[in-house]
Amino acid sequence: MTPVSTFNGRSVALFGLGGSGLATAKALIAGGANVTAWDDSEAGRAKAVAEKIHVEDLDGADWSRFDALILTPGAPLTHPVPHWTVQRAKALDMEVIGDIELFCRERDELAGGAPFVAITGTNGKSTTTALIAHILSQAGRDAQLGGNIGTPILALEPPDDARIHVIECSSFQIDLAPSLAPTIGILINLTPDHLDRHGTMEHYAAVKERLVAGAEIALVGVDDAYCHAIGARLTQRALPNQRVAPVSAERALDWGFYLDGDNIMFREKDHPLDEAELLCSLKGARALRGAHNAQNAVFAAAACWELGLEDEEIARGLLGFPGLPHRMEEVARLDHVLFVNDSKATNADAASKALASYIDIYWIIGGKAKEGGIESLRAFFPLVVKAYLIGEASDDFARTLEGVVPYEHCGTLEVATERAARDAAASKTSTPVVLLSPACASYDQFANFEARGDAFRGLAQKLAASVQGDAS
């Protein structure tokens, strides 16, 4: 845990008692703060009471006694309208912050130079974060992995000069962290996402930009227009204590980090192309399949190189990376049929990565749709043998697929998995893949993408086991 000593003796209102909210409340209390917590969920409140956290309905509380509102990233700060607790706080000119901001203040207080790598982007940030931490750990470094992936940031060990925090940051968390200034800030890519919470793509991009704007070393992708513009803007601004380095997985750069075939390269400014340094190769890195994972790997290698790792250490970590659950995760085989769990693909751009990596796809798709639906995925439709529609988006997706891809309304994930497995097993090809890559949020039928992916994994493994049992 990282006790929040910077709030010692102060009173705070805390809204949201999920995993990160509970960790934040405990860290504040451990640091000497007086916490009054609330959550709309009775289950969340019950967990807090069990942890001896003071729970009180903030709607009826005296807000004049609070010094700050600590807000869950799940509650809207600005769009579509500010959460009611935010409106209360703003009426009293009270700061509204989150757990990432609390960590940043503790870092400044305890060890201002402690290594801190913060990662964001629309897609790939979880894999990149986990990959960086894996490479560092394999090289013998104390790497603390968390944030928007796995462990809440304040449940990690405190900042220390010998400890490297590797933290995934969502746009919601960045919005609540005004003093975010990591040692290395990573912005991988930007495509439309969460516009219901940010209003416009421009505002969404501006929030993401804050993570790299305050970084000592800003690693910024140049493979999409929004990130390219951000990198150019930061370079032109040229702060004296900041270095901005471009990163590409698509082309060689005049300088910066880039992918050349399977090779991750670094080229110094004003040096010819033949003097570029080979950091490592991706050959043999099975868990980093696909162009999107190549992009993640370039960023991870760049960050670790900036942290002082040797090329051999980076290469060893890349090759040994096991991958993450719910990201093109191979979960079962049924004779010649492969089942792939890509539940983390919660928008069309994320789903495109898996669609580009396979042929003969039996595609399970649907859920709570994001803006734009699956129209942008038309180029991949020839790879899809059949689609199996689930959840709220079924009718909209059916209209997009009509006349182009055969489809079946399945309603639930269980039905879709059974029917996709049946059809794939009858395939005459050697490479059928039952692919859960929903291009949707999960909230219509599941608590989160992890729950959806776990359900699919269980269904696929049960089907595989039943066939093996019949054979024996």
Characterise the protein shown here.
The protein has 472 residues and is α/β, with parallel strands linked by helices. The protein has 3 domains: 5-97, NAD(P)-binding Rossmann-like Domain (Rossmann fold), CATH 3.40.50.720; 101-319, UDP-N-acetylmuramoyl-L-alanine:D-glutamate ligase, CATH 3.40.1190; 329-471, Mur ligase, C-terminal domain (Protein-Tyrosine Phosphatase, Chain A). The chain is built from 15 helices and 21 strands. Strands 6-7-5-8-9-10-11-12-13 form a 9-stranded mixed β-sheet, sandwiched between helices. A 6-stranded mixed β-sheet has the order 14-15-20-16-18-19, sandwiched between helices. It has a 4-stranded parallel β-sheet with strand order 2-1-3-4, sandwiched between helices. The termini are far apart.
Topology:
Elements: E1 11-15, H1 19-30, E2 34-38, H2 42-50, E3 68-71, H3 84-91, E4 95-97, H4 99-110, E5 116-120, H5 125-138, E6 142-147, E7 163-168, H6 171-175, E8 184-187, H7 195-198, H8 201-213, E9 217-221, H9 225-237, E10 243-248, E11 256-260, E12 263-267, E13 277-281, H10 291-306, H11 311-319, E14 329-334, E15 337-341, H12 348-355, E16 361-366, E17 368-369, E18 384-390, H13 394-401, E19 407-411, H14 413-425, E20 433-436, E21 440-441, H15 449-471
Helix pairs in contact: 5-10, 5-11, 10-11, 14-15
- C-alpha-based Rg, rounded: 23 Å
CATH topology of the largest domain: UDP-N-acetylmuramoyl-L-alanine:D-glutamate ligase
Quickly count the domains: 3
Give the low-pLDDT segments.
Answer: none
Named at the architecture level, the CATH assignment of the largest domain is 3-Layer(aba) Sandwich
- Find the count of extended strands (DSSP E, 2+ residues): 21
Q: Please report the first level of CATH classification, the CATH class of the largest domain.
A: Alpha Beta
The helix content, as a percent range, equals 25-40%
